[in-house]
Design goal:
By secondary structure, the protein is α+β, with helices and mostly antiparallel strands. Helix content is about 55%, strand content about 10%. The structure holds protoporphyrin IX containing FE (HEM). Belongs to the cytochrome P450 family.
Length: about 525
């Protein structure tokens, strides 16, 4: 039963990929034929429109119309690189005309705070119009992609209560088990294969944390049919949710391309035949089972928060997609970065060893103060290579003016995560990987994210009323993985055919919609012979 639906989801995914390729080709042909470069004429608050248009055409040698509207931002080495270059020159907020949509890209955290937090009542909507809102969220259910209305607020409040620290802490054993198992698998695969691409092992581990806590199930490995089934859904969800995914949202006229290519039907089928049966089954098995899990908390809150079965399906698919991919992507970047900085790893090992030697065991999350360098390294990794290029877009529901910048109602508001984290006014010498910059701010990421803007560490978890409700879970999970990694092994670059180490390219990335993945890489987790753990 599971096996057949996993093939179904895989086929769907293949079909949908083909569809979006067809769609892009058609869009390019139509737009090239009608000289539609003008569809995304750009304007800036500080410079003239022509300056920006010239820039776009200089950087995009053979414009294929709206295809580039999204990929414009991915043409640099890292998604967001290109627009970050523009913003260095043009200022912390620029306006892009994307068909009928107006996008504001924001690269200054202080300004982002004024827009998203101070003016949060009018800047917390989502701009998803078509497939996501009609099919994925059943016209407004769940948390991630829905408008900031009363239903969203109710569902978000329920999600916040089930992801609250005291509730997450009840699952500490699960988190420890998965962290141990992940590190042991990474070392085991290095021992057996020499080196490995860790992404599926990471995805399976992150998925297991959210899957066990949410519905009381876990996958055995990346070959488990349930893993394949869920990741097909997660990958598709990440693509659908990317800021640039919705061509007809930019230009309603392009809806006919969706009709021609059957995209609409394909999405509907994906939701009806893949997502809904999968989550209905997971919810049923969880609620009928003995094990404690978050879905049971949701069911208990169902009446109070007026949630029906569809609400449960959408919110569970939100949590599983948001929880699985983001953490694995963040850890994957940490491996790439730290394989390039052996001295940083040496200090990490010394810090973990000192704790283990003093206490005879690894630290708990509550003892994190005793590992300030590990915390600073995690924060610096997330600053240096942000998990998402543009967070999840917000939308203005009214005309607003912030510091003389007029933002009309309906504008799409985008955090340029790379721009913010490479902003030299906030992080001196931003291109240098330097964990010491965070040694003075080792408070938890969730406290920093929900506190005063001057005390924020980084901006990876977004803003204001929409800020990520999974920060505590993410942070605890990453902390336990870190402690085990450096107590047990050294992260080393892969070996070339000549037996010499080949550094992993820290700038090579791939755009996966909402998240930015490192380009596929090989790495080694070499067991320590001097590990303090017996
Ligand atoms: C390193 C890990 C993570 C990162 C970097 C991350 C990042 C983000 C970002 C940027 C947003 C959008 C915020 C905004 O619109 O301003 C978001 C929203 C969200 N995240 Fe996370 N997230 C992570 C982990 C998690 C986990 C573990 C969960 C839950 C299991 C989760 C659940 C959600 C949900 C439900 C939303 C939607 C909130 C809303 O729209 O009201 N995230 N996250």
């Amino acid at each position: 039963m599971r096996l057949s639906s996993s093939f179904l989801s895989f086929e769907h995914q293949q079909e949908m990929n083909k569809t979006s390729d067809k769609q892009i080709a058609l869009a390019a042909a139509v737009l090239a034929a009608t000289c539609t470069g003008v569809y995304y004429a750009l304007s800036s608050m500080n410079k003239t429109k022509n300056d920006l248009i010239a820039k776009v055409y200089k950087d995009v040698p053979s414009p294929k119309g709206l295809y580039y509207a999204g990929h414009l931002f991915s043409l640099g080495e890292l998604p967001g690189h290109k627009v970050t270059e523009w913003q260095k020159e043009l200022g912390p907020i620029i306006k892009l005309k994307m068909g009928i949509q107006t996008w504001f890209m924001i690269a200054d955290p202080q300004l982002a705070h004024e827009i998203f937090v101070t003016r949060g009542l009018t800047t917390s909507d989502r701009p998803y119009h078509t497939y996501i809102s009609d099919f994925y969220s059943y016209g407004g259910k769940g948390v991630v992609f829905t408008k900031a209305d009363k239903r969203w607020k109710r569902t978000r409040t329920a999600a916040l209560s089930v992801l609250a620290p005291q509730r997450v802490n009840e699952f500490t054993d699960v988190l420890l088990y998965e962290a141990d198992s992940l590190v042991d698998q990474l070392i085991g695969r290095t021992n057996s294969d020499g080196q490995l691409n860790p992404i599926t092992t990471l995805q399976a581990a992150s998925l297991n944390v959210i899957l066990t806590t949410a519905v009381g199930q876990r996958v055995k490995s990346a070959d488990d049919p349930l893993f394949i089934e869920i990741m097909a859904f997660v990958n598709q969800g990440m693509k659908m949710g990317g800021a640039e995914a919705d061509l007809s949202g930019f230009l309603p006229i392009l809806t006919f391309i969706d009709v021609l290519t059957g995209k609409k039907n394909m999405f509907r089928k994906f939701i009806d035949n893949v997502r809904d049966p999968l989550f209905t089954r997971l919810i049923k098995e969880a609620t009928e089972g003995e094990q404690d899990c978050l879905i049971k908390s949701f069911v208990a809150l169902q009446e109070e928060y007026e949630l029906d079965h569809q609400d449960l399906i959408v919110v569970m698919s939100d949590l599983i997609a948001a929880g699985a991919d983001t953490i694995s992507v963040s850890l994957s970047w940490m491996f790439v970065i730290l394989s390039n900085f052996p001295d940083v790893q040496k200090k990490l090992r010394a810090e973990v060893d000192a704790f283990v030697n003093a206490h005879g065991r690894l630290p708990t999350f509550e003892e994190r103060d005793q590992l300030p360098y590990a915390i600073a390294v995690q924060k610096e990794c997330m600053r240096y290579r942000p998990t998402t290029p543009f967070g999840i877009p917000h939308m203005a529901t009214e005309d607003i003016t912030v510091r003389d910048h007029f933002i009309p109602k309906g504008s799409v508001l985008i955090s340029n995560m790379l721009g913010m984290h490479m902003n030299p006014d906030v992080y001196p010498d931003p291109e240098t990987f330097n964990p010491d910059r965070f040694l003075a701010n080792t408070r938890t990421m969730s406290a920093a994210a929900n506190g005063n803007i001057s005390q924020r560490d980084h901006y990876n978890f977004g803003w204001g009323r929409r800020i990520c409700p999974g920060i505590h879970l993410a942070e605890v999970e990453m902390f336990h993985v870190f402690a085990r990694l450096f107590a047990k092994c050294v992260i080393a670059p892969p070996l070339g055919a000549d037996g010499k180490e080949r550094p992993i390219d820290i700038n090579a990335a791939q755009n996966a919609g909402i998240v930015t993945l490192p380009a596929p890489y090989q790495v080694r987790f070499i067991p320590r012979t001097d590990s303090p753990l017996k």
